[in-house]
């Protein structure tokens, strides 16, 4: 079987193997404010591919204020 991701920010620790084996997906941090999505496809000879959609939320906006003395 094989595993592939549609986006480079979502990777699988194993991209091909035989038999039963767990697959760990790792998503890089989303630096944007909006959610992003990727599809992961698992394919095996003689079987219909399985597709999973992974959606990652965007980063919450932050505001940092540092105090300074006014005179």
Describe this structure in words.
This protein is mainly beta. It contains no helices and 5 strands. It is 0% helix and 35% strand. It has a 3-stranded antiparallel β-sheet, with no helix packed on it. Strands 2-3 form a two-stranded antiparallel sheet. A hairpin with a 6-residue loop joins strand 4 (36-43) and strand 5 (50-56). It starts with a strand and ends in a 15-residue tail after the last strand.
Question: What can be said about this structure in brief?
Answer:
The protein is an all-beta fold.
- What is the element string, with H for helices and E for strands? EEEEE
Percentage beta strand: 35-45%
The helix content, as a percent range, equals under 10%
- What is the arithmetic mean of pLDDT? 92
Distance between the termini: 69 Å
Topology:
Blueprint: E1 2-5, E2 10-12, E3 25-27, E4 36-43, E5 50-56
What key phrases describe this protein's structure?
3-stranded antiparallel β-sheet; 71 residues; single chain; elongated; two-stranded antiparallel ribbon; mainly beta
